[in-house]
Amino acid sequence: MTSTKGRSGRGRARGAAAVLAAGVLVLGACSGSGGKKAEERESKAAGGASGPRLKIAMVTHSGPGDTFWDIVQKGARAAAAKDNVEFLYSADPDGGKQAQLVQAAVDKKVDGIVVTFAKPDALKDVVARATAARIPVVSINSGADVSARYGAVAHFGQDEAIAGEAAGREMARIGAKKALCVIHEQGNVGLEDRCAGARKTFGGQMQNLFVQGTNMPQVKSSITAKLQADKGVDGVLTLGAPFAATAVDSAKEASSDAKVGTFDMNKDLIDAVKDGRIWFAVDQQPYLQGYEAVDGLWLLKHNGNVLGGGRPVLTGPAIVTKANAAALEGFASRGTR
Hints:
- With 337 residues, the chain is of the alpha/beta class.
- It folds into 2 domains: 4-158 and 287-316, Rossmann fold, CATH 3.40.50; 160-283, Response regulator (Rossmann fold).
- Helices cover 53% and strands 17% of the residues.
- The protein has 13 helices and 12 strands.
- The strands form 2 sheets. The chain has a 6-stranded parallel sheet with strand order 2-1-3-4-5-11, sandwiched between helices. A 6-stranded mixed sheet has the order 7-6-8-9-10-12, with helices on both faces.
- Helix 7 crosses helix 8 (189-202) and helix 11 (267-274) runs antiparallel to helix 13 (325-333).
- The longest helix has 26 residues, at 4-29.
- The protein is elongated and about 60 Å long.
- It comes from Actinomadura yumaensis.
- It is found in: Cell envelope.
């Protein structure tokens, strides 16, 4: 994943995302009735939002109640509203049940499916059935390395190993020497890649700590117990915003000076980074993942466009610290970062 060829591919993916972003800015710059009418004519000619209504299903491994996935949905629903798409959402952390939800979408004969490959082997066969039924599939968030191989036409997300490497460097920068990497969902390949990447660049000792992410009191108890048992731990890296806040509480309860860094963001986390309770966050821009997945399928259906050229379209990592958190506060407050 760190070969020259891989970097070149990731560069092309960033380029594709940048070109798309530039196109959005150009469209947004149109003003006046003449510009609006021209856009409407172009949209109609291309089979745009005035064309046939599409039905797109998103099936993820985590869902409502998780602030990260709430942001993903906001992006997806914004794109759906723009593109005249009926958006269907479902989720289940169990790989087998997630596959059943994908099959249900296939049975509904939807026009496109968005999936996460957190547990890729569980979804391999059902995604093959979707593509055999001529239903295009794109993936987001997890499974960039298997996405194309399993039949998805595009992937939107960050390279989790590279994001982990960025987190490892940040943990070293803030002065941690012995750290925990808290994995809240066993078997999730993306989370494991994050910790592996962090260990690679950290330079000190980093140990995985597995917790039950669906039970936050148990998460707190597990982190607290580890910090009490090993006073040498001076850093905690969590893999989701809600777990970072819990880790801060655990450090207080254990009378530990361990510094907390995390992946992903929400409004509360921005406040915690600003006041120094959390040292940094690795942001993969979930709103962008949801938006581009739906919009990408719309582009494919209406104009034959495919983003990424067979490579993942990267949405992160972006490092958020006390130095730049305030600039993102407004976006986080409205629930889009």
